[in-house]
């Protein structure tokens, strides 16, 4: 019970901090941030002599900035080049300030930020709320104001603030709050990316173009990150990425769903009764699950019983968790959307992923039948007529 009470206090404190951040109308992160971050692909590589192409170094971020500017990533909306853990020297300097590893970042972070800015991009950096980062480098505990001022003086545009090595949940919540205030006091516009230990939405990086994902799984990650209004931070090697992965990550229609100014996070809608049972195989298999989110789209006013109603576009993702067997069909009524008003009297359906195509016009009492590959997702856009 004591542990549960401590957890509840932490959740309340975290919620208060988030509410305060949301109330700060500074124009930052109005839509989910987009960019590139090194961690998932390059981890904590620090041996530049043995592995120069994989080393977390100044050269790595210069090359990624070059690729983002030249290969259409910046134009697609990916604007942040973000440094994750392991950029620091093992100790602070004589004034107690964080410093970059002098061998791997010989020009310093200020010069790197200037280079990234010259490409029309923004620089993100990493620190930790605790005494040490997750990889054991100096953390920001008891240095929040100094570190915030240091980042601002370097021209940093985003701070990823991790949650390792804090002695208690109370100190964790207090550290997040103090860094928020410290960043605001710098007077520089810095996006504050809190890596809470208990995530409320997908915040991990897009690993599309890396190793380990099938094509269907890559489509699923892009579709679900889009419909959940999650940050789109790639972690891959933009110097060596397949044309297919590049087209998926730069898909304008998918990005538009993620960047919708309404910022409505997707949620799972009800499934028809009986769809969790596969009687042919005499055991339960995961069935495709539909997710839906509102989009700002183009609103229209129409008669709706006692008065006018406003119709919005919708995004619908149908996810198949099953890993075995073949494609599955999932049928659901369009009355699920907007209490039956989304397609009143009719709407057009467009498939966005895995391939773009128009499905035509449907009435509000119509049903959709969607075939989804194992571990795959079909992403649709529903537009009221």
Automatic annotation (TrEMBL):
<dbReference type="InterPro" id="IPR017853">
    <property type="entry name" value="GH"/>
</dbReference>
<keyword id="KW-0325">Glycoprotein</keyword>
<keyword id="KW-0443">Lipid metabolism</keyword>
<feature type="signal peptide">
    <location>
        <begin position="1"/>
        <end position="23"/>
    </location>
</feature>
<feature type="domain" description="Alpha galactosidase A C-terminal">
    <location>
        <begin position="308"/>
        <end position="376"/>
    </location>
</feature>
<dbReference type="GO" id="GO:0006629">
    <property type="term" value="P:lipid metabolic process"/>
</dbReference>
<dbReference type="GO" id="GO:0005764">
    <property type="term" value="C:lysosome"/>
</dbReference>
<dbReference type="InterPro" id="IPR035373">
    <property type="entry name" value="Melibiase/NAGA_C"/>
</dbReference>
<dbReference type="GO" id="GO:0016139">
    <property type="term" value="P:glycoside catabolic process"/>
</dbReference>
<keyword id="KW-1015">Disulfide bond</keyword>
<dbReference type="InterPro" id="IPR013780">
    <property type="entry name" value="Glyco_hydro_b"/>
</dbReference>
<dbReference type="Pfam" id="PF17450">
    <property type="entry name" value="Melibiase_2_C"/>
</dbReference>
<dbReference type="GO" id="GO:0004557">
    <property type="term" value="F:alpha-galactosidase activity"/>
</dbReference>
<comment type="similarity">
    <text>Belongs to the glycosyl hydrolase 27 family.</text>
</comment>
<keyword id="KW-0732">Signal</keyword>
<dbReference type="InterPro" id="IPR002241">
    <property type="entry name" value="Glyco_hydro_27"/>
</dbReference>
<comment type="subunit">
    <text>Homodimer.</text>
</comment>
<dbReference type="InterPro" id="IPR013785">
    <property type="entry name" value="Aldolase_TIM"/>
</dbReference>
<keyword id="KW-0378">Hydrolase</keyword>
<dbReference type="GO" id="GO:0009311">
    <property type="term" value="P:oligosaccharide metabolic process"/>
</dbReference>
<keyword id="KW-0458">Lysosome</keyword>
<dbReference type="Pfam" id="PF16499">
    <property type="entry name" value="Melibiase_2"/>
</dbReference>
<dbReference type="InterPro" id="IPR000111">
    <property type="entry name" value="Glyco_hydro_27/36_CS"/>
</dbReference>
<protein>
    <recommendedName>
        <fullName>Alpha-galactosidase</fullName>
        <ecNumber>3.2.1.-</ecNumber>
    </recommendedName>
</protein>
<keyword id="KW-0326">Glycosidase</keyword>
